[in-house]
Amino acid sequence: MRNGKWIGAAALILCALGLAALILARAGLLGEHDAPEQEAQIQETVHPDLPVTASPSPAQAPAITPAQASSPEPSPDGPPEPSDEPTPEPDPFADKPEIDITDWKYVLANQSHLLGSDFIPEVSPLENGHFFDSRAVDALKAFIQGARDAGLSVYLTSSYRPYSTQEYLFNKKVAEYGGDRETAARIVAIPGSSEHQTGLAADICDQYYQYMNESLANTELSKWMKAHCAEYGFILRFPEDKQEITGIMFEPWHFRYVGEEAAAYIMEKGLCLEEFVELYQN
């Protein structure tokens, strides 16, 4: 009886071991059967034209700190030093006309540029016994006629004046001011410095205006002449705000021929002839 119990217990143990072995065997077969399917799924995701490379493991990838990601490499020379030199201003006269400043039209006659008594231009006759440089006389005629066509009364008071005549006028003015040559020179040009000796200057007044002074600027004639002089190649030679440069008082009646191109530029920029000539000497 006791031997039968041992035999039964041994049989149960053997059955349990056999069942466990069967379970383990089935588990191993199932794992081997699934592996090829998983491998096939991985291979299907790889592009046929690209090489398959192994991804680096986290241990192999270099660590990047936040400072390295945001801060650029410092320059070996350091930051550029600020310049102490000021930014150059653009030249306001860079658009000046391309001319030969030594041409006869731009000859200067003032106390710094005296003409000799032998400077005698070729002149042609005008109305009322006046004369003007033969190369510019037609321009003056057109200028005067333009004013008359506008309904204005033009009276030509002075044009070409030789050295000897200027010498007489200046000495007369000096006598009027008790020998004060400096004061006289601001009213009448000293001999050799007169624009009229060039044969390119004309004094133009209103025929019915009796005063030849600064008030002439308020007449309709003077306003028209100033507004249109450049169209005929003339400039207002002695502007009101240039007396320190020209050395001559404001003369709203005095017009000087320089040619249309230069006249347009001078009047537009508000220059006097001395300033214009200087643009080409610097």
Strand content: 5-15%
What strand order characterises the main sheet? 3-4-6-5
Task: Give, in order, the helices and strands.
Answer: HHEEHEHHEHEHEHH
Number of strands: 6
Could you tell me the CATH topology label of the domain at 104-279: Muramoyl-pentapeptide Carboxypeptidase, domain 2
- The helix content is 25-40%
Shape: elongated
Largest sheet: 4 strands, antiparallel
Would you mind describing this structure in some detail?
The structure is a single chain. The protein is of the alpha+beta class and about 280 residues long. It has a domain of about 180 residues: Muramoyl-pentapeptide Carboxypeptidase, domain 2 (2-Layer Sandwich). Helix content is about 40%, strand content about 10%. The protein has a four-stranded antiparallel sheet. The protein has a two-stranded antiparallel sheet with strand order 1-2.
Essential attributes:
about 280 residues, alpha+beta, Muramoyl-pentapeptide Carboxypeptidase, domain 2, two-stranded antiparallel ribbon, 9 helices
Kindly summarize this structure in a few lines.
The chain contains nine helices and six strands; from the N terminus they run H-H-E-E-H-E-H-H-E-H-E-H-E-H-H.
